[in-house]
Amino acid sequence: MSRSGYTLPVFACAAAVAALHWLRHRQPLSVTAVDLISPAEIAEIPVEQVAGLSENSALAITRSDPGDNLDLTRNTPIWAVVEWYKGNGERVIIQGGEGIGKQLNGEGKAAIYSYAQRLLTENLQRMLAPGEKITVTIILPQGRSLAVRTSNAAFGVVEGLSLLGTTGISQPLSTPDQLTAFRADLQAKASRFESLVFCIGENGLDLAAKLGINPQKLVKTANWLGAMLVEANILGVKEILLFGYHGKLMKLAGGIFHTHHHLADGRREILAAHCAIAGLQSSDVEVVFHSPTAEAALQHLCSLDSNTGSDWVNQVYSSIAETIDIRCQEYLKSHRDPGTDTTVCGSVLFDRNREIIIKSKTGCMLVEKLC
Fold first, then answer.
1. Cα 136 versus chain centre, distance
2. pTM (two decimals)
3. How far apart are CA 29 and CA 60, in angstroms?
4. Among 54, 114, 121, 152, which residue's beta carbon has the most beta carbons within 10 A?
5. What tens digit of pLDDT does each residue of 85-119 get?
């Protein structure tokens, strides 16, 4: 069995708790207890170091342990600086320091998302006396160098890593054990709802919830889209909305139903083919084909539309979205028993700024039902 660890927000919270404990008691903690909130359990996190910086501030350090997840943040140090402050404002102010990414679409706002904000705020507020206020600065000393090895920039986060996620548990995303966990989650939700939303990763889960989709209807699939679609069909789920980053989800338009890049890619071929079918000039099709990322290809199409008044993004991505739906139906029909109904699939694709590029016709219908 795979060993689960914890996500970066948990270690950031543990460091902040240890630093605040030092400020209050002038004693170091070797282990901190963090209420994960989601799930409802307590995690005991080792503290590597604690130091007082002044009468009003302290620093604590923890180290990431994602379990058996193949995560590049394994063993990376997480620092938290906690400082007393007086004045107007929230009781807990959370800031991003060195190594925490900045959101391009948020005017440089630190990439510390809702779960991390809630985790830190709720755990720290419990330690504060009435009237006390603190600032918390999270620092990832290796964050800037690690970020160049991630897809953060594709989601508009630069100069560091994100504190992202909807849970404190970090689990392997591409192992058979994890597929078993995903299927169990799907089975539980299929028993309650006829329509569900499949999200490949945390960005999709976060954006779908912000759009007003019931979080109880969200199912994480990681790269196991084919297996999860078949499972949903067997369970009698009537409708599935595929909600994902275009650079991942478009692989389904090419018949690729396990989307890990080590197994298959095909994104540039899929994009170039749909550009050619739409009638894009061959020179621009070549630019799309040789683009280093799907996001770069999308930006080329956006530039053409902006400069010439064309509608290439809509034409190309409408074709891709409709093809995704068709390929999903074909895939499910090839895996179902004769005479049984097939789950209806619709798709929604978003870009690096978490803005929706396109909804398929079926996707539009499902979004209206789910929101």
1. 23
2. 0.62
3. 9
4. 152
5. 998 889 999 999 999 999 877 678 999 999 999 99
